[in-house]
């Protein structure tokens, strides 16, 4: 770890109407770290992630990404967002564009890269996710797992400082999950800074530097995976993990 802070979240509050979803979240991510966020549905995990690139606007608190305060009213959010890669549950690919065009369109429009350079970078990233031979396919011709890997390659093509993954495997058939997680493991090994909302506990245990357990809009427990998943201290964490790790267990 370089010790360089890439994401700093302090005192983050977010409400939708009367419903307070985030109740004062603090989060610190250094370059090259993988932080996995776990917790029950409705605990605020995805909302936290969406606040980090201002897809949701917090009511209160401060978010700094690689030195740029994105909660500053004067920030150029489009410029800031180019450095934050986002991979959603649903793949959000342009269905009428080829895989290659899906990877080059933002490079050319947002980063103003030329056709040749953007295609070269796109092909490098398609090869990285194991889909070099699919560049001329349409998204509808691909499996869900392949579409998600294209979505990852698209995000990588923007050279982000940090990658946000919002339950990237939750919409996939079980047999397709492994290919996506393998790509994410490889990114982690290469030193990509990653914030991952996931219910894949084995992945979190193996890949994360830090695991955050959220429930009811607060961080209940955080620490190394062996600590949070292997030896949780908080009752809420224990209850959640017993349900997730032993789905047949009637807790």
Keywords:
251 residues; alpha/beta; 6-stranded mixed beta sheet; 4-stranded antiparallel beta sheet; 10 strands; globular
Walk me through the structure.
This protein is an alpha/beta fold and 251 residues long. Helix content is 36%, strand content 25%. The protein has helices at 45-52, 77-81, 99-110, 115-128, 144-156, 174-189, 201-207, 225-228, 235-245; strands spanning 5-16, 19-30, 34-38, 60-65, 68-69, 84-87, 162-166, 193-197, 210-215, 218-223. The protein has a 6-stranded mixed sheet, with helices on both faces. A hairpin with a 2-residue loop joins strand 9 and strand 10. Helix 3 crosses helix 4 (115-128). The longest helix has 16 residues, at 174-189. The mean pLDDT is 93.
Rg:
18 Å
**Which residues sit in consecutive blocks of at least 5 with pLDDT less than 50?**
none
Give the oligomeric state of the chains in this entry, treating copies of one chain as homo and distinct chains as hetero. Answer: single chain
Largest sheet: 6 strands, mixed
DSSP summary: helix tally: 9
Q: Could you report the average pLDDT, rounded to the nearest whole number?
A: 93
Short description:
The protein is an alpha/beta fold and 251 residues long. 36% of the residues lie in helices and 25% in strands. It is built from nine helices and ten strands.
């Amino acid at each position: 770890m370089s010790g360089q802070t890439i994401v700093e979240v302090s005192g983050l509050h977010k409400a939708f109407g009367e419903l307070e979803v985030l109740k004062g979240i603090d989060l610190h991510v250094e370059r090259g770290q993988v932080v996995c966020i776990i917790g029950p549905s409705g605990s605020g995990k995805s909302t936290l992630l969406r606040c980090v690139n201002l897809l949701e606007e917090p009511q209160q608190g401060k978010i700094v990404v690689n030195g740029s305060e994105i909660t500053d009213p004067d920030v150029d959010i489009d410029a800031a967002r180019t450095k934050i890669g986002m991979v959603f549950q649903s793949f959000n690919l342009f269905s009428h564009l080829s895989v290659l065009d899906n990877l080059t369109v933002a490079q050319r429009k947002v980063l103003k890269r030329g056709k040749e350079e953007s295609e070269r970078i796109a092909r490098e990233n398609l090869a990285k996710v194991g889909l070099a031979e699919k560049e001329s396919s349409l998204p509808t011709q691909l499996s869900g797992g392949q579409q998600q890997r294209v979505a990852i390659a698209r995000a990588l093509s923007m050279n982000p400082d940090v990658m946000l993954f919002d339950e990237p495997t939750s919409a996939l058939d079980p047999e397709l999950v492994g290919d996506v997680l393998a790509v994410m493991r490889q990114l982690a090994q290469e030193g990509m800074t990653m914030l991952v909302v996931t219910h894949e506990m084995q992945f979190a245990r193996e890949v994360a530097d830090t695991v955050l357990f959220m429930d009811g809009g607060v961080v209940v427990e955080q620490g190394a995976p062996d600590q949070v998943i292997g030896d949780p201290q908080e009752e809420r964490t224990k209850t959640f993990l017993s349900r997730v790790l032993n789905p047949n267990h009637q807790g």
